[in-house]
Amino acid sequence: MEASNPPLADLSSLEPWDVAPETKMIPEDQYIDLEVVDISQINLESLTSTTSTLLSHAEAIDKAMRGLKKTGFIVVKGFGLTSEEISHQFALGKFLNSSVPEEEKKTLHAAINEGSWAGYKTQGYYKRPDGGYDTTEHYDLYPYTALESRLPQIAKQYLPNIRQFIEHNHYHILPRLLAIISLGLGLEHDALWKLHHRGGSYEADHPLSGAPKDNVDWVHTKDHLRYIIYHPVREEDREKKKYLSLPGHTDLGSVTFLYPQTIAGLQILTAEGEWKYVRHYPGQIVVGLGDSMEFITGGLLKAGPHRVKEPPEDQRHIDRPGMFYFVPFLAEVPLSPINHPAIYKKGGKDIFEEYYQHGGKPMLSNEWLVERSKLVGKKRIEGDLDEFGQKKSAMRMALEDISYRYM
Ligand SMILES: [Fe+2]
Question: What SUPFAM superfamilies does this protein map onto (predicted)?
């Protein structure tokens, strides 16, 4: 019998992330204000789908739905982590990316071209078509790869802290957020949760904490935690990169949590077609919707197109940290509108309609992730010939129309 997790390590002994002052160079009219939704009052055990639940959570539901319909993004507060706990996680992210020898990172490389993000993506991995050097590095985990053997030597002691953080995202923040969205759509409070957590219970079943250090009994989800650093872009590459750290796109899955940091750059596309900066919301997370959530709600909610602009001049020389928690639907969930009158009566439509008419098979969540992952960083080939000069099928054209609908 393997020993269970050692106790939490003391993250306050790590070198803290040196928080940069906020920029003073972005004019006020270039920001967009997001709706701030407080989820602290949501008690999962007492949730029902009756009028009393709707009334007692009316403010959170209204704000969330208003924000998500408008831009695909909201800010969430009251999610049960203190600013200090968040800072400690940023310190851990810095440690994982900056203190591990490059040689050791190579032994823990993520098999990205095989479809797994678990492990390191080092700088220079992507050969960009514009020739610019890739200055981003990250270390990623799925719940089932939160194992001692997958951590670098000097970080093994932090396994319990990482597991606890993943658990908090999955079992605390995610079901509360999904309950608010479900109720806002007119569905049962746990309708979306059941599509994100195999088994559908709000109980913290199969917890990561206390699991053996090299074996996690986790089949519930493919949630995905990323500790990332955007290093400054080389001066000679700025123009090649069109002054962007990351071009415009939508996330592929259901929801993404972005932990707060002060380096500006994240922009979202408004309904008026303008790119606007997202402010720094201290101690709060920015939550964005991905493609899969748009599809499954029949377009009642939209994925939020976003990009990362290079930081403004007063922050451009500073490393930009990030902690992202990506959440997909369960792999086998079909991405057609939920079969419920609340969706159809409000005009929810299947975005794959035309794709199916041309012979496409029902698109499952994991198939969409694989399909769209292949297109990351690639521009659509205009016209009706593919990269090999062959005529694109009507089915492929229909799928491209969906993939590139916001680009
Ligand atoms: Fe994104």
Answer: Clavaminate synthase-like
| pLDDT value of position 27 | 97
Distance 251 CA to ligand 1 centre (A): 5
Residue 325 CA to ligand 1 centre (angstroms): 11
307 Cα to the center of ligand 1, angstroms:
7
329 part of a folded domain: yes
Ligand 1 centre to CA of 182 (Å) is 23
Which backbone phi and psi does 227 adopt, to 5 degrees? Answer: -105, 120
What is the rounded CA–CA span in Å between residue 87 and residue 260? 9
Mean pLDDT of the chain: 93
Question: What's the CATH number where 170 sits?
Answer: 2.60.120.330
The count of structural domains within the chain is: 1
- Give, as residue ranges, everything with CB less than 5 Å from ion ligand 1: 251
The answer to whether position 390 is within a domain reads: yes
Distance of CA 43 to CAs 175, 202, 256, Å? 10, 11, 22
Q: Which domain holds residue 283?
A: 39-403
Residue 1 has pLDDT above 50, yes or no: no
Ligand 1: centre distance to CA 179 (Å): 23
Find the 389 Cα to ligand 1 centroid distance in Å. Answer: 31
Structural domain contains residue 19: no
**Could you tell me the distance, in angstroms and rounded to a whole number, from the CA of residue 127 to the centre of ligand 1?**
19
Please give the average per-residue pLDDT across 372-387, as a whole number: 78
> Could you give the CA distance from residue 380 to residue 377 in angstroms, rounded to a whole number?
10
Mean pLDDT, residues 299-313: 95
What does the H/E/C string look like for 25-59? CCCHHHEECCCEEECCCCCHHHCCCCHHHHHHCHH
* Residues of the chain above pLDDT 70, percent: 98
The whole-number pLDDT of residue 377 equals 63
Provide mean pLDDT across the span 239-260.
Answer: 92
Mean pLDDT value across residues 276-293: 98
Per-residue pLDDT band for 3 (boundaries 50, 70, 90) equals very low
Residue 138 falls inside a structural domain: yes
Q: In angstroms, what is the span from residue 252 Cα to ligand 1's centroid? A: 8
What is the C-alpha separation between 198 and 178, in angstroms, rounded? 15
Distance 246 CA to ligand 1 centre (A): 8
Expressed in angstroms and rounded, the spacing between residue 306 Cα and the centre of ligand 1 is 6
Whether 4 shows a pLDDT value over 70: the answer reads: no
**How many Å lie between the centroid of ligand 1 and the Cα of residue 45?**
32
